[in-house]
Amino acid sequence: MSAEGRSVSILGVTGSIGQSTMLVIEELRAQGVDIPVQAVCAGRNVDALADACRRMRPRFAALADETLLEEARAALAGLDIEVAAGASALVEAAARPADWVMSAIVGAAGLAPTMAAVRRGALVALANKECLVCAGPLMLAAAAASGARLLPVDSEHNAIFQVLTHPQRVDKLTLTASGGPFRTSSQEAMAAAKPEQACAHPNWSMGAKISVDSATLMNKGLELIEAAYLFDKPEHQVDVLIHPQSIVHSLVHYQDGSVLAQLSAPDMRTPIAYALAWPDRAGISSPRLDLATIANLSFETPDEDRFPALRLAREAFRAGPSRVAALNAANEVAVADFLAGRIGFLDIARITGETIAHLEGAEAGLIAKTPSSFDEVAAVDQAARHAARRIAVSLAAA
Amino acid sequence: MSAEGRSVSILGVTGSIGQSTMLVIEELRAQGVDIPVQAVCAGRNVDALADACRRMRPRFAALADETLLEEARAALAGLDIEVAAGASALVEAAARPADWVMSAIVGAAGLAPTMAAVRRGALVALANKECLVCAGPLMLAAAAASGARLLPVDSEHNAIFQVLTHPQRVDKLTLTASGGPFRTSSQEAMAAAKPEQACAHPNWSMGAKISVDSATLMNKGLELIEAAYLFDKPEHQVDVLIHPQSIVHSLVHYQDGSVLAQLSAPDMRTPIAYALAWPDRAGISSPRLDLATIANLSFETPDEDRFPALRLAREAFRAGPSRVAALNAANEVAVADFLAGRIGFLDIARITGETIAHLEGAEAGLIAKTPSSFDEVAAVDQAARHAARRIAVSLAAA
What we know:
The structure is a homodimer. Chain A is of the alpha/beta class.
């Protein structure tokens, strides 16, 4: 298989995707597949980084938190691994000459390392959302220039990638969405929803931020934007379909009437293994799908009145990359306020929408521009966070 | 697209698949795609053949029924088309140098013409079931020798063909089946079923023979055998799943946990267009799938007690090609008897099973041999028909 001899680096090795990536690598190694590991990196969990190093035996290990460098060195003593810390160490981990790089650092911290891997033309398995949401055009331009290939790992985008056999013959893409915990809730129930209700995702166990994003459907809105960037389609060719069982991960509709779909049991090892072995396929022991036991797959159109995040995402994508970065930043502020109990659930989309409307007036120049650097993205991000906080405060006071 | 300039012949142009093939060609021609037609042929419907000739403008037209040659010549006068009749004319139609041949002659009459197209290395769009069921190994060996490519048109096999991206990494194939009109019927209701009930297929409008085969699930049993031949898998790697909505046409399960599926509205133009444009894809106006409107897809394991045809088909495939040919012949006899009101619905599978058991004793040499020619296939076919008729008569008399 194509993973044979493929050297890899894992950025964000201690997170959920990083852990699943190690499981896939270990399983393939047990099959006799040679997968040398160049570099791994983590944020500040020294113990988990040391565990990863003992299992993966990389040449280089990096920690984001510089204050933990000595602790990390001590934990990795005797393993013959070069250890470094700080933001530049993460970038160095990505720059090391691995054929394949898993980009799974959560949040904006993943931008610079991922860009380093893209710039040197690697195969980049993309599990970080911010790379495309905040810096889609920059990332895609860099990949086009270097010949890097972006291999989507998110289950929806990976599904599309698996069945995108004829990119020039696509009618539309359909991203499926579980619908989240409030799929069948009334507007009133959503207005009164508490953080613990919003975090009770029906099919996947995830962090609080992404759970709330699933509840508002902003997660799907951001995925819609990612899909439009990644597969080079206008937003009106990217549909969202509610599919509560989360078995059909996404679909590609072709101009001959065929619709191709990827299905699986919900286990991230499957998309990770696909990205790792691409363009071949690996054999791994992730759970097998049994449709007769599942018995029913259901589908419904999302309600954009109760879930305005989808509309906001479409509008932002149409308006350009700065609007998308502002959407993402404002949503982050609003979700944090919701999780802290300062605002209601429906206020999340309201604050996000009002933030963009405000910036379109007050920061028209900034928001109309297509960012040509991460610094310009960061300027939009800061302006949006500032405006969102102000709007949230006045809302909480009202 | 790849259909551009592709010359085609249509064997069985007046049947349902032939008509849909013409619609696809006409639609692509209207888009400016050049699709010259070499030859068309039909059984005995002169008017429909003449209509096809006026629309397709082939160089050569053939009719199976020799007695209608003069009538056909008169009907096609002035069109500058060479006309011939008889079994050898059908073979000549297939032998004409078209790049792509639609094999849609129903029944055993399709064997020799399809083989002629396969032997000269054409792209052969396969809509005739008997080619693989009766002569699978012969057809596949001829294709391997000539470099012919078999492009399955049956919706289930076409679905698998569309998503068989990694043939060496397949866990199993799943053929979906509507379950037919007796999916939820009791054994007693099935025992008492009349031909008109058996012919009431829930999703497709088809001929009486194939409708009864759908009701017994023998149609799926024969498709299982076709799939095993076509995709070179043992029968235990080919599953059957009841899916009453007939939207998911089949699925391929991979060793990494991914399951790829093709879905569409039930319209044969979609698989025909796929075969015609392969390895590209065409754009045609077949109906678009709307999953939100369909709302529910359901799946269940077939009940092999009520539908023993599936078990018979698996056993026949395991036992070898002669057993498969005997299965098909015995089933044809039994279905005809059922349609004529001479036997009950459950007797169809019973006669088929008893015929094979009888041949295994009385014709052990014949049935154990792998046929090396169509004549040897015909000998098995005749022995099976003879035995099935005898068994049916004794059953009807009992």
